[in-house]
Specification:
Length: 110
């Protein structure tokens, strides 16, 4: 079990410490769960077209499962640990910044 300080406001700290993330298909929450290899249970809101691309990607790459609203109302989590398997995704912010520096007129020299 992980202890998160009460003053922590960043959602990624809570996601990283989670055994399971249950969420709508918002790209921020989904991407944080994927980076931290936390199993996903995504609410499939079929009427929300913006969710469907994210849901299709999750399904295609085996990154989580979907659940509809009726199933969600009956869902019970019994504390079972789901395997956190390496999915190959990671936070590459530093590599992206370095590549942008190479592509643009920014200098890495100070």
């Amino acid at each position: 079990m992980f202890s998160i300080p009460k003053e922590e406001t960043e959602s990624q700290a809570y996601i990283a410490a989670s055994d399971l993330v249950i969420s709508k298909a918002g790209w921020g929450t989904v991407s944080e769960a994927v980076v931290y290899n936390v199993p996903l249970l995504i609410l499939n809101r079929e009427g929300m077209k913006e969710d469907q691309n994210t849901i299709n990607y999750i399904r295609k790459h085996g990154l989580g499962k979907t659940i509809d609203w009726e199933e969600m109302l009956k869902y019970q989590y019994h504390g079972e640990k789901q395997e956190k398997k390496e999915n190959g995704f990671r936070n590459d912010a530093e590599a992206i910044v370095e590549e942008l520096r190479k592509q643009c007129c920014f200098s890495t020299d100070n």
